[in-house]
């Protein structure tokens, strides 16, 4: 079963705009990760934020984590057409660090 | 380093048959996990192997099984295929040894299985 929900399910923006995706989860976590998937291919790790961190940056990516609300957000600034993909949040399920529980994902379309 | 390699990339089977998928992890990675991705259920964890032992298991029927070899390569087997087994099967590897809460996983391109 999925850990939580992502919002929105789909997002369509123009190049240069910012894209914000939200993720909610249900259980306590050690960390939360965001992955990108291009058109039915493998997932690529983007960023990991630990449960004791509130914000993390990596290039054009900014992730926030609110453990009290069990939610996270991913912000992509100055979006490019190449950012078009599905984005998933993933948390570590109980019983093992390598058992990732994924959200339903947000489909992002960035138009030139 | 070479990435995670999954073979075959595409597979077509009929109901009742069995199938074996293969995954070669990144060199030095001892943990291999398998996920099933479908439009209806999304990404679901199947199982994880570490040093030839199953360390974690998801909620899938016993028709789904796996194993890991001494060189960390892993295979996943699905017996008595059903139409609902049609999916993208993803393999991911990680070092798997750290006790720090870091479990970044590196995914292969996947095997797309179609059951007719």
Notes on the protein architecture:
The complex is a heterodimer of chains A (112) and B (116). Chain A is 0% helix and 54% strand. Chain A is mainly β and 112 residues long. In chain A, the strands form two sheets. In chain A, strands 2, 4, 5, 9, 10 and 11 form a six-stranded mixed sheet that branches. Chain A is globular. With 116 residues, chain B is mainly β. Helices cover 0% and strands 52% of the residues of chain B. Chain B has no helices and eleven strands. Chain B has strands spanning 5-7, 10-13, 19-24, 31-38, 42-50, 53-57, 64-68, 74-78, 87-94, 106-107, 111-115. In chain B, strands 2, 4, 5, 6, 9, 10 and 11 form a seven-stranded mixed sheet that branches. In chain B, strands 1-3-8-7 form a four-stranded antiparallel sheet, with no helix packed on it. The model of chain B has no long low-confidence stretch (mean pLDDT 92). Chain A binds chain B through residues 1-2, 30-31, 33, 35, 40-45, 48, 50-51, 88, 92-93, 95-105, and chain B through 4, 31, 33, 35, 41-45, 48, 50, 55-56, 58-59, 88, 90, 92, 94, 96, 101-110, 112.
Uncertain ranges of chain A: none
The amount of beta strand of chain B, in percent, is: over 45%
In round numbers, the mean pLDDT of chain B is 92
Order of helices and strands of chain B: EEEEEEEEEEE
Shape of chain B: globular
Shape, principal axes of CA atoms of chain A = globular
- How confident overall, as mean pLDDT of chain A? 91
Distance between the termini of chain B: 37 Å
Count of DSSP-assigned helices of chain A: 0
Largest contact between chains: A-B, 29 and 31 residues
Poorly predicted runs of chain B are none
Summarize the amount of helix of chain A as a percent range. Answer: under 10%
Distance between the termini of chain A: 36 Å
Topology as H/E string of chain A? Answer: EEEEEEEEEEE
Largest sheet of chain A: 6 strands, mixed
Radius of gyration of chain B: 14 Å
> Structural class, from helix and strand content of chain B?
mainly beta
Count up the helices of chain B.
0
What structural class do helix, strand and pairing data of chain A support?
A: mainly beta
DSSP, total strands of chain B: 11
């Amino acid at each position: 079963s999925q850990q939580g929900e992502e919002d929105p399910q789909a997002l369509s923006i123009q190049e240069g705009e910012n894209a914000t995706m939200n993720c909610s989860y249900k259980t306590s976590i050690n960390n939360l990760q965001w992955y990108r998937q291009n058109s039915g291919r493998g997932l690529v790790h983007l960023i990991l934020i630990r449960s004791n961190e509130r914000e993390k940056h990596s290039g054009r990516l900014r992730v926030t984590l609110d453990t009290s609300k069990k939610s996270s957000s991913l912000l992509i600034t100055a979006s490019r057409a190449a950012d078009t993909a599905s984005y998933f949040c993933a948390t570590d399920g109980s019983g093992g660090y390598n058992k990732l529980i994924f959200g339903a994902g947000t489909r992002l379309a960035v138009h030139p | 380093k070479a990435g995670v390699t999954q073979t075959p990339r595409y597979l077509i089977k009929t109901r009742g048959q069995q199938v074996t998928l293969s995954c070669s992890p990144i060199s030095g990675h001892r943990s291999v996990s398998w996920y099933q991705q479908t439009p209806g259920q999304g990404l679901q964890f199947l199982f994880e192997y570490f040093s030839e032992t199953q360390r974690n298991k998801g909620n899938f029927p016993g028709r789904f099984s796996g194993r890991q070899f001494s060189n960390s390569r892993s295979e996943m087997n699905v017996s008595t295929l059903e139409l609902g087994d049609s999916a993208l099967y993803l393999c991911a590897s990680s070092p798997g040894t750290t006790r720090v809460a870091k479990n970044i996983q590196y995914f292969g391109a996947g095997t797309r299985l179609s059951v007719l």
